[in-house]
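Supplementary notes for students who missed Thursday's class. We covered one full example, reproduced here. Read the sequence, then the structure, then the short commentary at the end.
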Amino acid sequence: MVSKVYPDAETALAGLLHDGMTIMAGGFGLCGIPEKLIVAVRDSGVTGLTAISNNAGIDGAGLGLLLETRQIRKMISSYVGENKLFAELYLKGELELEFNPQGTLAERIRAGGAGVPAFFTKTGVGTLVAEGKELREFDGEKYLMETGLVADVSIVHAWKGDREGNLVYRKTARNFNPLMATAGKVTIAEIEHLVEPGDIDPDHIHTPGIFVQRIVHYPSYEKRIEQRTVRQRAA
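Structure (token representation):
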């Protein structure tokens, strides 16, 4: 049996990256992002990327690293508010942006992973989101057609995984990661705790190993705080 475990992020990405490709990156802000794989994508020098991600991290972290190097041509996202460079590049016309309501983005990814090419939703009807898209009426109500999303490569972050690729996400890091793990032609999981097959209770598995082709194990991470909010100590 061929091992799914690779020694590092660079090796796990070998043979998969090419200019103009589409990459899905899990996470929300800095929570649950595959940060080691993102750095390896940056260091590879690949360009013209379409990145599917809820947002682009923050300035200097997450997908923000790929914006700094101008390796991303287009973002398919739902939120850009924490990244000044993201907004700046978009307003200058240097970055293409496909905005999605957050639920629509999640469903487009889920649909892509399930082999559903398109679906209809009321979200976005009558707004800029609907421009250029098909409208259809069901039971007297208008619905907007959205297409499923599939990536050449999905990169996700999991708290725990076994050598067969079964994954468990921890708390808020279980955001876009489970959806994206199903929607990549190749999925690479970056995990904090690597265990043996059978060590994870089957009822606790969030992503079955059939969806995961490659694994990299990094036991140590800096737990960044995106927005630090504190209150004054009592006198």
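Commentary. The longest strand covers residues 151-162. Helices lie at 9-13, 35-44, 64-68, 84-91, 102-114, 177-182. If anything here is unclear, bring it to office hours.
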